[in-house]
Write a structure and sequence with these properties.
The chain is an alpha+beta fold. It has 7 helices and 5 strands. Helix 7 links the parallel strand 4 and strand 5. The protein is elongated and about 90 Å long.
């Protein structure tokens, strides 16, 4: 309840209590004083509660900004890296069922240069939604930076991980954003079982991403310079 309404409510309630007994010879003054004190206390708690509620909303908003990318709503680079670190070190995570995939929009600079950055932002937002729609609840999509995304795939065997990424690349190729030219993506996939640390996992995914671009783009690489 807002403070002003709480104050009015307590005032009206107190007057209603005082009115019937004000004409009596014997007035319970202590009782009325205690009632007045309780009314003021209720008002204070209501006002304080409103302040706490607003502070809680601000705290939630700041937390969202700290962990998500404001444009796409995906995890940001920091929170994505933290999630990958946790999964990589978790005793219950099987290395063969954890994959990191770096996905980059092909020739994205052409979109920004020819149509403007605002239309480029539309492409990024649309791609983020498309990536999310192809992931399972245990997976994660991360805005890694610029036009690059990181996919964290868990609970899948290597063949299923590769199939998932190929489906995403195919879906992007077929996807159309009204008023924008079609785009494609290149992807590099690395398995946790192939490396000894998260930096090595990301470096391997990055190496394969550039191998996909060197091989002609619009494809997935899971081995250096080997087309999917």
């Amino acid at each position: 309840m807002r403070a002003v309404w709480a104050a009015l409510l307590t005032l009206v309630g107190y007057l209603l209590l005082w009115g019937p007994v004000s004409g009596e010879r014997s007035v319970d003054v202590p009782g009325l004083l205690m009632t007045g004190f309780a009314a003021v206390l209720i008002w204070f708690l209501s006002a304080h509660g409103q302040t706490l509620y607003r502070a809680h909303l601000r705290s939630d908003a700041l937390a969202a900004l700290a962990f998500t990318d404001p444009l796409t709503g995906l995890l940001n680079r920091r929170s994505g890296r933290e999630k990958l670190d946790v999964l990589f070190g978790a005793t219950g995570t099987r290395p063969g069922q954890l994959a990191a995939v770096l996905v980059d929009i092909d020739h994205f600079k052409r979109v920004n240069d020819s149509l403007g950055h605002h239309r480029g932002d539309e492409v990024l937002t649309a791609l983020a939604a498309l990536l999310q729609s192809h992931l399972a609840p245990q997976d994660a999509a991360v805005r890694w930076g610029g036009e690059e995304f990181l996919l964290i795939l868990t609970g899948r065997d290597p063949a299923d991980a590769r199939t998932t990424v190929r489906r995403i690349v195919d879906a992007v190729r077929e996807y159309r954003v009204l008023g924008l030219p079609p785009v494609t993506v290149s992807a590099g996939l690395a398995l946790a079982s192939e490396v000894r640390s998260v930096p090595e996992l990301l470096a391997l995914a990055d190496e394969r991403l550039y191998a996909a671009k060197d091989a002609g783009r619009d494809r997935v690489m899971d081995r250096p310079r080997t087309a999917s």
